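Field reference: sequence -> structure
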Amino acid sequence: MKEGKLIVFSAPSGSGKTTIVRHLLDIEKLNLEFSISATSREKRGREEHAKDYYFLSLKEFKNKIKNDEFLEWEEVYRDNFYGTLKTEVERIWATGKHVIFDIDVSGGLRIKRKFPEQTLAIFVKPPSIDELKIRLKKRKTESKDKINMRIAKASAELATAPLFDKVILNDDLNKALKEAEDLVEGFIDSKKK
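Structure field:
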């Protein structure tokens, strides 16, 4: 199996990592494919199975943990598991592409530890916790309690930023997109054999 690069984007919810990842996927020369995470949470809005996430029941998810089918996994919130299936990364590498992840901080750091030379781990930092709260409210996809839970978690996640290879401050989206593009292109080009 041909192995490519692993590009990890992690951040607190509402930081803009998904927007950045989508932008990078549109740049053909980067040769990236999105790693679809598995989750035990319910679908939100217009999310689709095998496009946005692999939606698994709690029982299915726990069985896959037991069978060592995950590259990394995390119980992000009570009974809300997220993880990267080994088969997903193998599928993407088999096509000759590099894998790009949009995952939580713990999962991102686990991938970096497992594949230190192949991984570029980027943390997307919001301008402030207040701005994060505004962005989450604008989404209108979650309850007030869920938003408060995400904000509480964000402080701990922000403290992990120095553990990543690079930190992008997303206070100006166009600037953040360009910075992400330059970092990813530089990493892929420098690692070509």
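Note: DSSP finds seven helices and nine strands in the chain.
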